[in-house]
Write a structure and sequence with these properties.
This protein is an all-alpha fold. It is built from 9 helices and no strands. α4 crosses α7 and α6 crosses α8.
């Protein structure tokens, strides 16, 4: 509990220390975290939606309920699989990168140099990454949801015999606005968890290559576990 409190305070300080604001550093992190993560998130969503359609059709056929494939694929992607798998892919790519970068700066005493130059390391290193991840991961989730639904549509129309127009109509008919919004809120929370994990372990990296490696590993593990735990808590709050 003490550790969770320390991380929460660290994230809070990173979010509120906006002055002075460094727009170039923020824009760089938007590209690194958001744009460059789009291919892996998109591919993950595509194959997940396609596999989900196959699984739902196979299971539903046992109960003569295979017609529910479009609705379940859409709801499953938007509520659960899109945010969680997107967050995990971003965690694997971004948390490790942030921890390694900041950890290397710690080892090479670049962070000490920032302090010597009267530059707050939190404002320069942590704040742009926290805000960039919090803002971009929901956008990645939205794109991933759409691609995942299209993956299910592709399998449904090409392999399972669904009519294209009817499949899309059923997909959207059973979706509610709160389903989409809850997934985006999860994405924002997951982005904050990913960036916080990377920055926290990077700032506390041990000396040498071994210390940076351990910080990177710990950041990815903590981000993944944090995403799964936060998903359970948010799901309980949203849909109980």
């Amino acid at each position: 509990m003490r550790g969770i409190g320390a991380v929460a305070l660290f994230a809070g300080r990173g979010l509120v220390r906006l002055r002075p604001f460094y727009p170039r550093a923020f824009a760089t992190q938007l590209v690194q975290i958001g744009w460059l993560s789009l291919p892996v998130v998109g591919l993950t969503a595509l194959f997940t939606g396609a596999a989900l359609a196959l699984q739902i059709h196979s299971g539903g056929a046992r109960f003569q309920a295979s017609d529910v494939v479009p609705a379940i694929v859409a709801i499953g992607m938007v509520r659960e699989l899109g945010p969680v798998l997107g967050g995990l892919m971003v965690a694997a790519r971004v948390a490790s990168s942030i921890a390694a970068e900041i950890g290397t700066m710690r080892v090479t005493e670049q962070i000490d140099a920032l302090v010597t130059l009267s530059t707050d390391p939190v404002r320069w290193l942590v704040t742009p990454r926290l805000w960039a991840a919090t803002l971009t991961v929901p956008l990645l989730v939205a794109v991933g949801d759409s691609i995942g639904i299209m993956g299910g549509w592709l399998v449904g129309t090409q392999s399972l015999g669904f009519n294209s127009t009817a499949y899309l109509a059923n997909s959207w008919a059973y979706l509610e606005g709160w389903d989409v919004l809850s997934g985006l809120v999860k994405g924002a929370a997951f982005g904050l968890i990913v960036a916080t994990s990377g920055c926290w372990f990077g700032m506390r990296s041990g000396r040498g290559a071994e210390g940076v490696g351990q910080a990177t590993k710990a950041a990815v593990v903590a981000a993944a576990v944090g995403i799964l735990a936060a998903n359970f808590i948010l799901t309980g709050l949203f849909f109980e």
